[in-house]
Amino acid sequence: MSRAAELAGNLPPPDHKALGEAADWLVRIQSGPLSPRDQRALLAWRRASQRHEEAWRRAEDVLGLLGRIPPELGREVLPKLAADARGRSRRRALAMLVAGAGAVPLAWLAARGGADAAFLLADHATALGEVRELALPDGTRIVLNTRSAIDVRYDDRLRRVVLRAGEILVETAPDTVPVKRPFLVETAQGRAQALGTRYTVRQFDAATGVAVYDGRVALRRTGQAEPFAMLSPGQSLRFSANWKSPLAPAEPADTAWQHGMLAARSMRLDELLVELGRYRRGLLYSADEVAALRVSGAFPLHDIDASLDLLAATMPVRIVRRTPYWVAVHGVRPSRD
């Protein structure tokens, strides 16, 4: 019997409101890694009442089964559900929690249909934890990071790549046609035009991040004709429709993910776990007492458990694995000597 099941006997049954809130968290977790702020909010919600804790126990049971859904089942069912699944994720997740974990496979695929349809319909996409390199018709090289999706739209006027989700590394090649066409990466917030360039573009929830390693990149917001920024080698920036971040450094080591490694330089522990969480299923978070610890090092992305063990061996932290899909990083317990 699991530890969660043992604890359940001492907890009151969750009410409908608590199950609904747990369903909201379940949908958010599976939509992508939680930010440090969201991780703290989830922990605060769980600690608010015993009914919340019991509702989360049911959510944990659901998370624990997600990795067992056969990929072929997803490929068969998701296209059929994509058209009408949008907006129903919360209701379907709630139905799963009320009905129990046995309802996971079909209900979960329905809940995820709208999000996964974007990957199914994209020209090129990567699965969770997958990194893939592509050669475009003009010789441009693109590397897709984990859970990334692009469309390639070349015509007589433009070489355009639409980033639907995730992150890409671009190494542009000179155009091969007599009339040279600009190379653009388009996101929900705007366009990044390459000027003989090696750069990355990442689609965040409400912003676009661009980092330049060679050449220059002109940034335009959606609907605007003129660039609002020109990035040079070693510069990075995030922007949205009405906001841009200060310039930040772009280090070549930041692209180590293309070789299966994550390079951290004095990175907050909670931010490191968000990045590692992009390559695994489930919930990965830090307790408040260690969230601000600074971490430097190289961490393998093909084996997140090994990366966590490396953290525990080099930092004053311990890894608590409640299930394979629910992992927390806590401070080391004080010695009783």
Describe the structure.
- There is one protein chain.
- 33% of the residues lie in helices and 31% in strands.
- The longest helix is centred in the middle third of the chain and has 18 residues, at 104-121.
- Strands 1, 2, 3, 4, 5, 6, 7, 8, 9, 10 and 11 form an eleven-stranded mixed β-sheet that branches. A three-stranded mixed β-sheet has the order 13-16-15. It has a two-stranded antiparallel ribbon with strand order 12-14.
- Strand 8 (208-221) and strand 9 form a beta hairpin.
- The chain contains nine helices and 16 strands.
- It is α+β, with helices and mostly antiparallel strands and 337 residues long.
- It folds into three domains: 3-121, no CATH class; 132-252, Jelly Rolls (Sandwich); 260-331, Phage tail protein beta-alpha-beta fold (3-Layer(bab) Sandwich), CATH 3.55.50.30.
- Helix 2 runs parallel beside helix 4 (50-66), helix 3 (36-48) packs across helix 4 (50-66) and helix 6 (89-99) packs antiparallel against helix 7 (104-121).
- This is Fec operon regulator FecR.
- Residues 21-61 form the FecR N-terminal domain.
- InterPro entries: FecR (IPR006860), FecR_N (IPR032623), Ferrdict_sens_TM (IPR012373).
- Keywords: Membrane, Transmembrane, Transmembrane helix.
- Residues 123-217 form the FecR protein domain.
